[in-house]
Amino acid sequence: MEYENRFRQAHRQKYDCLLFDLDDTLYPLSCGIAKACGQNIKDYMVEKLGIERNIIDDMSNHLYKNYGTTMAGLRAIGYDFDYDEYHSFVHGKLPYENLKPDPVLRNLLLSLPYRKLIFTNADKVHAVKALNKLGLEDCFEGIICFETLNPIHKNTVSDDDEDDIDFVGSRRTNHTTSTSASNLQIFDIIGHFAQSNPTQALPKTPIICKPSEFAIELALKIANLDPQRTLFFEDSARNIQAGKRVGLDTVLVGKSQRIKGADYALESIHNLREAVPELWESELKSEVAYPSNLAVETSVTA
Ligand SMILES: [Mg+2]
């Protein structure tokens, strides 16, 4: 029994869970989804929020850079809008036809004996649609998405709110407080960064999203994950670095060169077996070793 316990200790897998970003991680940037999404966000800012088109590029750069998503930045500087409407506008016209079923990735994922979760800043409709297009909809235990970290309540009294933080099939409510931008005080973020020495602090956003460490910690808590035993896959360097700061092991996807904060780097998620073979090895050793002749196996593989 003692041998067995020691063996289990020695061969315990390094990870309990693989946590995957979705966009530009499970499919390549070259699919054009991100580019189209960026354009739709800019169109939303002009058409729905009445922002002048000539400042859109500058403004969205500042917002994305400082708040993680343009949406989070828009809320921070004073715009209010219906979140579902925003998401359906920016995702509604995406070229989803560019996402094709990926049986190679599907087989890779299904061969990995770990909990597997999606963690995306996007909304659930987009995440489910993209996963379906990729043929990966049943490869994950759950999806941690915008609504998971930003549960939204109806203004009217709701029947119950208790499962608002469920990450699997997070229940939706409607954001009903749409406010006209013209009544709002908007923080001038372009003017702020035009100053050589901005003294005023940037306003805070009510939206929780990567790369905030709080967002990552909240996601881990909701999914009951130990950061030390979770491997985090991301295409975004700043999300990788935030993940590292909260204690995750990290895989940068889409680049072959590692950056600060990345434990591994993969040009494509398809290279996972070559780049991180230990994800399969520990399972293989356990299968070979259990349950016979533990002492011998321990000496060979310890
Ligand atoms: Mg991404």
UniProtKB/TrEMBL annotation:
Transmembrane segments: none
Matching SUPFAM superfamilies: HAD-like
InterPro entries on file: HAD-like_sf (IPR036412), HAD-SF_hydro_IA (IPR006439), HAD_2 (IPR041492), HAD_sf (IPR023214), Pyr-5-nucltdase (IPR010237)
Protein name: Ripening-related protein
Taxonomic classification: Eukaryota, Viridiplantae, Streptophyta, Embryophyta, Tracheophyta
